[in-house]
Specification:
Chain A is α+β, with helices and mostly antiparallel strands and about 160 residues long. Chain A has two domains: about 30 residues; about 130 residues, no CATH class. Chain A contains three helices and twelve strands; from the N terminus they run αβββββββββαβββα. In chain A, the strands form three sheets. Chain A has a five-stranded antiparallel beta sheet with strand order 4-1-10-11-12. The model of chain A has no long low-confidence stretch (mean pLDDT about 85). With about 400 residues, chain B is mostly helical. Chain B has a domain of about 70 residues. Chain B has 13 helices and no strands. In chain B, helix 7 packs parallel to helix 9 and helix 8 packs antiparallel against helix 11. Chain B starts with a helix and ends with a helix. The chains are: A alpha+beta (about 160), B mainly alpha (about 400). At the A-B interface, helix 1 and strand 9 of A face helix 3, helix 4 and helix 5 of B. Chain B: InterPro entries: DUF2157 (IPR018677). Chain B: Keywords: Membrane, Transmembrane, Transmembrane helix. Chain A: It comes from uncultured Thiotrichaceae bacterium. Chain A: Pfam families: GDYXXLXY. Chain A: This is GDYXXLXY protein.
Chain lengths: ~160, ~400
């Protein structure tokens, strides 16, 4: 194979893979169904980590519907009933779900527990999330993949709030 | 006047070379030496410049990212990446290796920055080693086209770190960088992985420019691991291991031993030495075969009446013994294959470990005048022994054959 052609392919590979990755996330964000969940900080030391907020999402699950055990792949069924199932036991009747896992504390982790914010607004948003004023808008597709869309503070986009303050 | 010029004048005075040879050597050194030195500086500045430009653009985006629409941010990043790729491709046709490598290095650094940008834009949750593993996979073909070692060194450095932490995270479930309990598994895996990479580069000509980087990391991580486990074992720590955390290291060790055993470049002696070192290292880190974390010879006096500690079963005796044995085997291997500097470093470390062992066993003596005199004599004695025996040991190891 011509060396120049090989180099061109090698240079193209990361661009294509990264662009494809970004495109998939973008598609998931715009095509998925939007759902809003309240969020809350769970550990004052860990809530603000550098340039992102980490929080716990309140999926509105009752005690009976929580993680059946720890350290397993799991799915959170949203419709018709909010309940967590082991990934391979998700019933056919579940029409909307989020893939994730149950961690060592038997808590459902969906991978949506991080929201990047600019450093200058971090403290303001941190305080508001601590005060339980935060909500997370996510987009969920048919395959159970979910992505973060926006952070709401008092039901308004966070950018509006920080602009006012 | 440089060291070489001084030496040349001394050789001229001694009649070892004539004036004509001195002039010829001087001219040659000035020509090649200056050329290499200026290229080295040029290359460093080009790499530095390209990296700073990339970081500057990223910082600009990072500082204002909340006000820039996502598509603009991503579009700019991919536009820059494509521009850099096109420039690298164009530069590959010219004669300037250094500029080509600087662009190629900037390209792979920018790939890492774009991974970070995608994570930021879409609020992705993930660990740094996952991002680095993705980066390693997608930039490997690019790095294989580099002419200078820097890109290979950068890639292998990040890959070894990401693969080590990633593998431990996979085997331990919820790995956290703050969890010191998993450090032994990390320290065992790192040198094995680097050694595996090194042996792999010896098998393929396409990977030969990675060789020195993997070898560098093997020696550094191997030494750090040995010091780490020696301190921990001698101190009687680490009674609660999780054997699962070691699974990646055991898998890599098995692959590594197979590669060494099947490598025709190694003589049976070297294969035996290297495999023995790996087995001893695994034994050293193993949770309970050789060490129980409780038996210490230094604390013999603190044992309950009637309870004595056997010298050979004590953790703080077995640990230095294993360290010295591993260093000795590696020194023999290095001496045998003609790696004189490694051989000297290993034999020096053996001497150093003996001195430390002396202070471990006779620490109380250092508090007295006589004890200090004895300690000083011990150090001088070891230095003298090292100086006298080193050459003999080197000749012996070089003479070892099938």
């Amino acid at each position: 194979m011509n060396r120049q052609f090989g180099l061109a392919l090698a240079l193209l590979l990361p661009i294509v893979i990264l662009a494809g990755n970004a495109w998939l996330h973008y598609q998931q964000r715009i095509a998925g169904e939007s759902i809003t969940f309240p969020i809350e900080g769970f550990d004052p030391r860990d809530l603000l980590s550098g340039h992102y907020l980490i929080y716990r999402i309140d999926y509105g699950i009752n005690d009976n519907g929580n993680c059946p055990t720890s350290d397993i792949a799991a799915s959170l069924c949203l419709k018709p009933e909010r309940r967590i199932y082991p990934a391979d036991e998700l019933p056919q009747s579940c029409t909307q779900f989020i893939r994730g896992n149950c961690d060592s504390s038997a808590r459902f982790i969906s991978g949506l527990e991080r929201f990047y914010v600019p450093q200058q607004y971090a403290d303001i948003l941190d305080e508001k999330v601590r005060n339980k004023q935060g909500k997370l808008v996510i987009a969920v597709d048919q395959s159970g993949n979910a992505g973060v869309v926006d952070l709401l503070i008092n039901d308004r986009p966070w950018k509006e709030i920080v602009t006012e303050e | 006047m440089t060291g070489l010029e001084k030496k040349l004048l001394t050789w001229l005075d001694q009649g070892l070379i004539n004036q004509e040879q001195l002039t010829a050597i001087g001219q040659y050194e000035r020509r090649t030496g200056k050329s290499n030195s200026s290229h080295w500086w040029l290359y460093s500045l080009l790499i530095l410049g390209s990296s700073i430009i990339s970081l500057g653009i990223i910082s600009l985006i990072a500082a204002n990212w909340a006000n820039i629409p996502d598509l603009v941010k991503l579009g700019t990043a991919f536009g820059l990446l494509s521009l850099l790729a096109a420039t690298t491709l164009w530069q590959a046709e010219t004669d300037s290796d250094y500029l080509y490598d600087a662009l190629l290095t900037a390209f792979i650094i920018l790939c890492l920055a774009v991974i970070g940008l995608i994570a930021q834009v879409f609020h992705l949750n993930g660990h740094w080693y996952n991002a680095l593993l993705l980066w390693s996979a997608i930039t490997l073909p690019v790095v294989l086209f580099a002419h200078q070692l820097f890109a290979y060194f950068l890639w292998s450095t990040l890959f070894i770190h990401a693969a080590t932490w990633g593998a431990i995270a996979l085997s331990s479930g919820s790995f956290s960088g703050n969890n010191a309990a998993q450090l032994p598994a990390l320290f065992l895996l790192a040198p094995l992985l680097a050694a595996g990479g090194y042996v792999l580069t010896r098998l393929s000509q396409h990977l030969k420019l990675f060789r020195s980087s993997f070898f560098f990391w093997f020696q550094i991580s191997g030494l750090v691991s040995l010091i780490f486990i020696d301190i921990i074992r001698s101190g009687g720590e680490m009674r609660s291991f999780e054997l699962d955390w070691y699974i990646p290291a055991y898998i890599v060790a098995a692959i590594l031993m197979t590669m060494i055993a099947s490598n025709p470049a190694y003589r049976p002696l070297n294969k035996g030495l290297l495999i023995s070192i790996i087995l001893l290292l695994l034994l050293y880190f193993h949770p309970f075969i050789l060490f129980d974390g409780e038996t210490r010879y230094s604390f013999n006096a603190l044992q309950a009446p009637g309870e004595t500690v056997n010298f050979w079963t004590a953790d703080d005796i077995r640990a230095p013994f294993l360290t010295i044995l591993i260093l000795f085997l590696y020194a023999t291997h290095a001496g045998n294959i003609g790696h004189h500097r490694t051989f000297n470093a290993m034999t020096f470390l053996i001497g150093l470990r003996f001195v430390i062992l002396y202070f471990q066993a006779m620490g109380g003596l250092a508090a007295t005048g006589v004890g200090l005199i004895l300690s000083g004599l011990m150090i001088i004695g070891i230095a003298w022994f090292w100086h006298k025996s080193r050459k003999r040991l080197q000749h012996w190891s070089e003479g070892l054959h099938e």
